[in-house]
Amino acid sequence: DLLIRIFSHMDPQDIINIRQCCRSLHEASLRRIVWIDAVHRIACGSKGVGMRFSTDRMSIHELEHVATAPHRFISRIRRALKRGDNFLLPISNRHLSRDTPSGVPPARLTMFRLLPGGQFLITTGSDCKLELWDL
User: Fold this and answer.
1) Angle (nearest 5°) at CA 50 between 65 and 94
2) DSSP conformational letter for 119
3) 111 shares its domain with 78
4) Domains in the chain: how many in total?
5) What are the pLDDT digits (tens) for 18-48?
6) Residue 115 counted as domain residue
């Protein structure tokens, strides 16, 4: 319990690093509450963005992935800057497909808005249809 309380004050990347010291720290770092607390700290520190997903159904691996995502993203930007890159290439590309009747071209999208948290995309088209995409 003491180790879990200590972990509740640490950054997620520090938890990853300290778990390599010994078996007891490693086992304590695999407790679900450690990563739920880390995700909540990351969400609270995001200046009002807040949490957009439920941690109740997430696995420990998913919680750890979410908690360490900001650090991984910033590290990727720093590596690109050190290499002298002018832009950052995407890790993956995903294309949204629209189910439309045969022969009817999809409407041109006129507005995109990514909601805070990054899970949902709102689009409108020239046909004035509002669509919500779960990414």
Assistant:
1) 50
2) S
3) no
4) 2
5) 999 999 999 999 999 999 999 888 877 655 4
6) yes
pTM exceeding the 0.85 threshold for the entire prediction: no
Is the confidence at residue 134, as pLDDT, over 80? no
Which residues form the domain of 125? Answer: 107-134
Quickly count: other Cβ atoms within 10 Å of residue 9's Cβ. Answer: 9
- 112 and 67 within one domain: no
Helix or strand run (H / E) with residue 6: helix 2-7
Distances (CA, A) of 22 to 14, 55, 93: 14, 27, 39
CB within 8 A of 135, min separation 6: which ones?
A: 94, 118, 119, 120, 121
Tell me: pLDDT of 17 over 70. yes
